[in-house]
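Suppose a classmate hands you a notebook page containing two proteins, each written out with its sequence and a corresponding row of structure tokens. How would you begin to make sense of it? This section walks through that situation. The first entry is reproduced here exactly as it would appear on such a page.
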Amino acid sequence: MNNILLTGGSGKLGKAIIASGYFSSILSPSSATLDITKPKRIEKYLNENTIDAIIHCAALARMSECEKDPAKALHVNSIGTAYLVAEILKREIHKNNKIRFIYISTDGVYPGIRGNYSENDETIPYNKYGWTKLGGECAVNLLSNYCIIRTSFFDPSHIMFDNSAIDSYSSKVPIDYLVKAIAIMLKEKYVGVINIGSKRTSDYKRYKKYKPQIKPCKLIDIKKNVDFKMATDASLNSNKWERIKK
């Protein structure tokens, strides 16, 4: 890939992508230069730059903020993604330019109750963040050369909380693992949705590996202090990914 456009380059995942060294040529414009909620700016940027692939990380990802301001979350996560997709579709139709598009979605598009969700399971998000990311997925599905990555990640070097639930399960992956997975899927010809996750385990066990002093608690205790719905078991079936990465 000659030129890769990265949206959300100032975010945690975006910064990790830039620093990784996996990607030879990344364009990471500021949100002022490429505001995905403004179609004219998207059009201008794509007209002025030759783009071979896009890694779309830009999102309103704070769940509490999505709950407090769902209109903003919708505008960024769903509508902004749709604006970006619309401009790419124009190039597919008129220039036969099938840009490779990687969309970073979330395990939150699944119900988050029974776990072990596969790509073909029903998508009924459990909070507003998940719904807005699912809206973005709907737009991305219109493209010819796309990969929707459903995942959840964390930074082992920045686990800011002191307690974690022993009865909350997920398949969260370290941020560096996800960056490498994105690099692999960027080169793959795979089109569609893919789950990228680790082995199912409790959040407490996962974080304790990297922060030994973390204390166990119950999910109900965490829920008392947040204003958004949380999953009981958001673990993923990543068999498809395991086959691809070999």
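The notebook's second entry, a different protein, reads as follows.
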Amino acid sequence: MRYLITGGAGFIGSHLVDALVSRGDEVLVLDDMSTGRAENLSHLTDSDRFKLVEGSVLDAYVVDSLMRDCDCCFHLASAVGVKLIISQPLNSLLANVRGNDVVTSAAASHGRRLLLSSSSEIYGKSNGEALTETSASVLGSPHKSRWAYATAKAVGEHLAYGYHRERGLPVVVARIFNTVGPRQAGAYGMVLPRLVKQALAAEDLSVYGDGMQSRCFTHVLDTVHALVLLMDCEEATGEVFNVGSSGEVAIDELARRVIERTRSSSAVRFVPYANAYGDGFEELGRRTPDTTALSEATGWSATRTIDEAIDDVIAYQRGAGKHQGSLGLAR
């Protein structure tokens, strides 16, 4: 099979490239390198099953040409990270809304199976119990740039469903919850690589708010395994699936685990949200997925712990994992 992966030089995308190439598939990557990095794929430079095209999903001609040459498409290209979205909400909307339209339209035109990467952000302010795929999407005010990303992802899902119902596009939507692991950059507001970087430098670890907000962190290899299974599952066509672990941890606890596992002399320093993201930032106290639908459709379950993810990020930042290929998927 030949796959097109948009955003394939990014964090999740590059691990997906590794997984597909390692099982013998051919992979075309389209990435504008705005947040993707060439070093994530440098170990594949000499592979005859891999090709990187530097370009944008906003370029309809390039997308159409690559879509024509592939069998299936993973659409992962997206503006990501809280800091990036708050500082550049317009770019986030354009990249996500227009990009989704260009890619989805091309996939429909050529009859290519599409996996659309969505996000747990689509649930907005929904809080408390584990979120199912039918949980309400409660978005905040348009005056808050915090919600631009969630809004764009919701529009992307509506586009995908519209093309599926009206034009027969074989599409599956993956709502990805917090994913962590090697190659993730902390520059755009990603919490674990930022905390690890601070710990390795013996700096205080910055925890926003009171640190009691909790998330379920999934190792990137478990996330990639879920995406591959969904792409290969015909019964998933036209459906949406949460992708995430059930291992909930408070951010304060995450920081303390990072200190313990790096054996750092760092302390935890609590920082008001306003200092990090500006006045009026809205954060969710809890966001945890119900992945029953994913498990029933594909048999998937998360196999790696948060401590394993922390250790892998530590090794990567220390230099041990920078140019390794696929770390493997299922256990």
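A careful reader of the second entry would note: The chain is about 40% helix and 15% strand.
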